[in-house]
Every structure is written in C-alpha cells, then in structure tokens.
Amino acid sequence: MRDSRPALIVFCREPVEHQVKTRLLGAITPAAAAALSDAFIRDALAKAVSVHPSQIVIAAGARGGAERSKYFQRLSRRFGADLIDQGSGSLGARMTHALEPFSSNGALLIGTDTPSLPTALLAASLEALRRARVVIAPSLDGGYYAVGVRGAMPPIFTGMRWGTGSVFASTIRRLKRAGIRYSLGPAWYDVDLWGDVMLLAAHLRLLARFRNGTPCPATESVLKRLGLLRHAR
Questions:
Q1: Which of 15, 134, 164, 182 is the most exposed place for a label (fewest CB within 10 A)?
Q2: Helix residue ranges per DSSP H, 150-216
Q3: Residue 69 to residues 15, 63, 187: CA-CA distances in angstroms?
C-alpha cells in the first residue's frame, strides 16, 4: 500500500562561523553561534525522526553544495535522512525547490529556529497536511516556522518581502485571494535575537524545575556550556 503520509523537510544552512546566527554576534562568539546553529539542526532532525513522516529530507545550504558537505553527509547517515541542496535564489525560490518534488503526498518544511517546539506540535502540523492543501505554522515574530504544501505550489513563495514581520499576514492574504483552503499549525517562538536566547534559556529552566524533560537536548547542552543554564536540574 502506498504511504500517504507527508514527508518532512528540515531546511537549514551549514553552521559555519560568521555565516549563521549573525544577529547573535557581539553577545556571543562566532564559534558559540555556530555551535547553537548546529544544535538547533540536530534537535530539529531528532524531532523529525520521532514524528514518523514518510520521509525525512535535509534541504541544505552549504558552500560547494550540500551533497559534498561532510557535515550534512554525517547528519544524513545519523538520522536516516535524504540530502538535497536548497538551490539558489530567494528564500521563496529555495523553499519551492525543496517542496516541489513531494507534491503528490505533500511535505512539511520546517526551519530550525524553534528548538523548544514540542514534538506534539510538530506532529499536529504534519497530520494537518493530510487534510489540507496548505499548512502554515506561525512564529511570534510575524513569520512562520513551518509550511506544508500538498499539490501545486500556492502563490506564496514569489515576490514576498522575507525577513519582515508581515510575512505570515501576507501569506494568509495571498491564500485567501487565491481561494486556497489552508490550516494553521500551532504558533511558537523563533530564536533569532539575543532576547530570544534569554527566553529560550528561561523556558528550559522552567521545564527543568518541573521535571518536564527537555524538547531540545543538543541545544540545552550548548546553553549550559555558555553558562546560561547552570541552575537547571
């Protein structure tokens, strides 16, 4: 029987110093920023495995191409993921490139900037894509951290002003104008700025206090090394 579950695509960049998490530089070193980026990727892939999609795909950006990246080759083997290159162009063009090969059963594309996202919420967005043509999971900064598409690409990836606080609202307006039914995934917070890192650390300390476990063990380990979680139990 054909597997009707959507695929799950983890959309990420190789964690190279001075090229990732640059908005954190000054508060932490380039090496620490790269370590956080690496931890975010590994935690996202661990969640991907736990929600049992039909396929896990790493859509990677790396100098020289994803397929030649030893970093991504290791992750691909470790998590049983297929590895594809993001391609070139705008963020919208690269997301389209990642999503289009999975149009029949659909795919949910997630970023890696929501390390504390509970696995159950990721599973909810993936399940929603079995019923809706488009799934959008908003982030609190006005963008979205996950987008799922089943069938033809909707008109939401071209001509968008990426990186602004209006991306989510603009996306919803476009879907409504096109008459495309969509489903909303759970909202969550991104970790882009230093204040977001402080929020993440406080959140993880609270979870540790109530012994609720951690949704992002790799990230928690890095934050401990940075001295941000020394009171966690």
A1: 164
A2: 167-177, 194-209
A3: 11, 8, 32
